[in-house]
Amino acid sequence: MNRLFLLSLIAILSFSVQAQPKKQKDEKNLKFGIKAGAGYSQITDLSKVLVSESYYTNYTFKNSNTWGGYGSIFLNYKFEETISAIQAELSYSRLGNKLHYSDIDSLNYDFIIKYEYMNFEIFYKVYVFHGLNLGIGPRIGFNLSPGALYYTSNGEARFGPDIRIQQQMRDVLKGRSNFSLGVCLGYEFPIGLTLDARYYYGLSDVLETEVNNFHFIENKNAGRSLQFAVGYVLPYDLKFFKRKR
Question: Domain extents for the chain?
Fold first, then answer.
């Protein structure tokens, strides 16, 4: 997957170099905007961290994706006499997952992660028809809540308070930064309204497993997310942003 990311990044850079205009940059091509929406996400292979097949049997896991909020501010520059653009974004997103465990001993518990990220991303975009655009680019997300792990069960009588087990889990399972590759499909209306759908494929491990007594094992747990957003774009040279002379 790292090789795929490097090839994609090289393609982005080569396309942007070819798209550079011979004329000087025109401020009219620079726009900024805001977006807000929701994301539907998961973290892969969490069950393999919690229970090793070689250690225990006769159990089941039910995996559920989770919803979370999303928002961003961005700058978009369209190159002169081309259909290409570069868009840089600073965004907030949530990456999460819910696992429900049950076994033949009637133990049931929910293991939930709700990580929040501040992301920086750069997209190379192509406007294929009027405001219809496609894009691809990398995103690096910095984890704002590495301890956002939650545990509830029906086993307090046997194993002790859930809140104690939850804290012990938080001590050994730590959230990490998230590095991913995104693809997008969007449309920009002449009035400034934008619609945007994106899919992010995680390339890094977002969960670090430290030495522990739970028999938790280290495993690569990557993020996957689908995001939908509505936004508004403003030209950089609007009178609202110019100084009065």
Answer: 31-241
CB atoms within 10 A of CB 242: 9
Which CATH class for the 31-241 domain?
Answer: mainly beta
Main-chain dihedrals φ then ψ at residue 84, nearest 5 degrees: -100, 155
Three-state secondary-structure class, residue 222: coil
Contacts 24+ apart (CB under 8 A), 142-146: 142/117, 142/118, 142/177, 143/115, 143/116, 143/117, 143/175, 143/176, 143/177, 143/178, 143/206, 144/115, 144/116, 144/117, 144/118, 145/114, 145/115, 145/116, 145/175, 146/115, 146/174, 146/175, 146/176
Phi, psi of 161 (to 5 degrees): -60, 140
Measured distance CA(116)–CA(175) in Å, rounded: 10
Q: How far apart are CA 70 and CA 91, in angstroms?
A: 7
Q: What angle do CA 186, 187, 193 make, to 5 degrees?
A: 120
Q: Which two tokens stand for residue 195?
A: 């619609």
pTM here is 0.82
Contact 67, 44 (CB under 8 A): no
Q: How do residues 19-69 score in pLDDT, each as one tens digit? A: 444 444 455 788 899 999 999 999 999 999 998 776 677 889 999 999 999
**Polymer length in residues for the chain:** 245
Q: Look up residue 210 and give its two tokens.
A: 């430290």
